[in-house]
Write a structure and sequence with these properties.
- Helix content is 15%, strand content 29%.
- It has 346 residues and is of the alpha+beta class.
- The chain is elongated and about 80 Å long.
């Protein structure tokens, strides 16, 4: 129930997936050891999607438990439903920490109406609603904040986020399959969720180990077909990166989980749109036909939306393929979304 669960949630605006305490603690522990050795030392932390009425957010519970040990200056939290108030916890003049509820007139808890608190914060930490994740990440950049947030893996190729990931200003960490709590006490497993961090303190910045040559690391044109509508070859498995190939390679977005900029240069991602990092097709196919399990299903509007691989022969009985009236005797398959990379020269 990985990516499909997230896609349904986004379409239905079903955002009530609550991060478990253990997952919050496991990742955030990477950013502090004690009050004197901590990324959070002296910082103001804002949890903008973690109000007191939202099933007692585990992000909030974690920071309430460890704020003094982190050496943080202040914590504040809000969320939809926390009407006219903001949870606060702060360091006092005698070094102790105090909790209180601060009145905020005409505030319904929506992070979009909390500009003063965004400006006040040093770092944003939360699991924002996936249906408005793009809007949330845009706010992080508008207010120029460090952040540690959990979000959909598909957002890596959003035009707002991709340029930052490509040049390592935002790092991506893959927690593997995670289990989220749902209203009513049920749980749901999801595998297409990642941590996004923008930490400008180099000491606490997430780093990646890079890739090693895999079992098929030598280039072979039979194993790595060229695209029909983009420059580059298809590398569908990151374990099979051909380390002796110097041209463009199309790889899954999960490439960023272990991306080392000393190894590879990121060129962009396949897209028909225009934006930072978007690489448009070098060739478009018009008048195409889409075939599903061997049956003609009409005009192939989506043929140009992804990188294409060209095959010789008749339309197969299984899967979705496209044909072009200008290229008889061949058919085409879309790949998944791809990021284009090139090996750096020594």
């Amino acid at each position: 129930m990985g990516a499909n669960s997230l896609h349904r949630a986004k379409a239905n605006k079903n955002d009530e997936f609550y991060t478990r305490y253990g997952d919050v603690a496991f990742f955030l522990k990477h950013f502090w050891k004690n009050a004197d050795d901590s990324y959070f030392k002296g910082k103001r932390i804002y949890l903008p999607c973690d109000g007191l009425t939202m099933r007692e957010s585990q992000f909030l519970e974690y920071f309430k438990a460890f704020l003094p040990q982190m050496g943080a200056e202040e914590l504040f939290a809000s969320g939809v439903g926390t009407l006219n108030c903001m949870y606060m916890m702060g360091k006092q003049s005698d070094g102790s920490y105090k909790e209180w509820i601060q009145r905020v007139p005409d505030f319904d808890g929506d992070f979009r109406d909390a500009g003063d608190y965004w400006k006040r914060a040093d770092v944003i930490v939360t699991n924002p609603p996936f249906s408005i994740f793009r809007e949330f990440i845009r706010a992080c950049f508008i207010y120029d904040k460090d952040f540690i947030i959990l979000g959909p893996a598909s957002a890596m190729l959003n035009k707002e986020l991709f340029p930052y990931i490509a040049d390592c200003r935002v790092m991506v960490s893959n927690p593997g399959q995670m289990c989220f709590e749902l209203p009513g006490g049920d749980t749901k497993k999801m595998g297409s969720v990642v941590w996004y961090t923008r930490i400008r303190d180099e000491r606490w910045k997430v780093t990646h180990t890079g890739y090693r040559a895999g079992k098929s690391y030598r280039y072979d044109k039979e194993l790595y077909p060229s695209y029909a509508n983009y420059e580059g070859i298809e590398v569908s498995r990151l374990s099979d990166l051909p380390f002796d190939y110097d041209g463009l390679m199309g790889v899954p977005a999960s490439f960023f989980y272990d991306y080392d900029p000393a190894q590879f240069e990121v060129i962009g991602y396949a897209s028909q749109s225009v934006g930072d990092g978007a690489v448009q097709p070098s060739r478009f196919y018009h008048g195409s036909t889409v075939w599903k399990d061997g049956e003609n299903c009409g005009e192939g509007h989506r043929m140009n939306t992804r990188p294409l691989i060209r095959y010789e022969g008749d339309v197969p009985d299984k899967g979705t393929v496209y044909t072009s009236p200008h290229d008889p005797g061949h058919y085409y398959r879309n790949t998944y979304q791809r990021v284009f990379i090139r090996k750096r020269k020594p």
